Amino acid sequence: NENDITSRLKTILQINNAVRLQLQDGNTQACM
Prior knowledge:
The protein is mainly alpha-helical and 32 residues long. Helix content is 94%, strand content 0%. It has one helix at residues 2-31.
């Protein structure tokens, strides 16, 4: 089902964004 694949991709992208933000946050704190 194409709809299922699309929703999975959206979920993966959201997780990627969340992880990226956490990494940026960690890097910022480490630099300080």
